[in-house]
Amino acid sequence: MPAAKPVILTGDRTTGPLHLGHYVGSLRNRLAFQDTHEQFLLLADAQALTDNAHDPERVASNVIEVATDYLAVGIDPSRTTICVQSHLPALAELTMLYANFVTVSRLERNPTIKDEIQQRGFARDIPAGFLCYPIAQAADITGFRATVVPVGEDQAPLIELTNEVVRRVNRQAGRDVLPEATAVVPRIGRLPGVDGKAKMSKSLGNALVLSASPAEISEAVRRMYTDPNHLRISDPGQVEGNVVFTWLDAFDPDVEAVAALKEHYRRGGLGDVALKKRLDDILQELVAPIRERRARLAADRDMIRDVLREGTLRGRARTEETLASVKEALGLFAF
Prior knowledge:
mainly alpha; Rossmann fold; Tyrosyl-Transfer RNA Synthetase; 2 domains; three-stranded parallel beta sheet; two-stranded parallel ribbon; 14 helices; about 55% helix; globular
């Protein structure tokens, strides 16, 4: 028999449509993983509520929007299981069980949590669901028995905590019940926003969504931050921190040509307009077919609901099997 494919879990919070930062940071890799891994994509609507409980309608409506983005970029539901987190009750029960193996101080020491608490200004008014979402994430990862989890560098501590939970459960059971997971950090991390001042975010107005129109793409590229000291074409320019070059690194398939452009820009004689024209052309070619497919898919929401329903049923079977194994291993009462 052929060897089983490694299991990979990834997904997105359903707080808004996906943008080009998601594409370069995760979606592009997910297309390749369809051929090499057993892939699960989780629409994390329950996790999205940890800091959006005041706006559940936004979270719910974006389940369909994010699923549409998945299909528009080429995710194939026959090769990738797409499921909705809030319809997988085994994950909530695993979260409750795992909470007994993690202390509050351990959660508060997590650098990802510390940074996000500060960014959101929670101080000591931290929603318990938000503080505990690393435990819920451990439930997601282990529920699908994933051994590979793509994350940004800032999310790697969450995988460390997941593996701590795995080791404690296995030690309690006296055998290996759950597998540990390996974090995979993509070559291109967070894509900066067009303003160069923050990560790409729709709420900050510096993102390009996957359905962006040709005019929106051109306007975003036109506004991109370059080098403020590069006043004349003949002036030497700085590549580091130059958003246009960061985006070219992410999207231009001709690596050698980009390297030559950087050298030319550094010595002078290359204008920002020419650079932006190249990037604009590349983005227009990339987004056009995604935008067209998305428009067709969005007209058939029943089909998208069917994809989610079927994928969630497969996900439920997997996670309930894991839950049964964990409960048995921990010696919980059985009828």
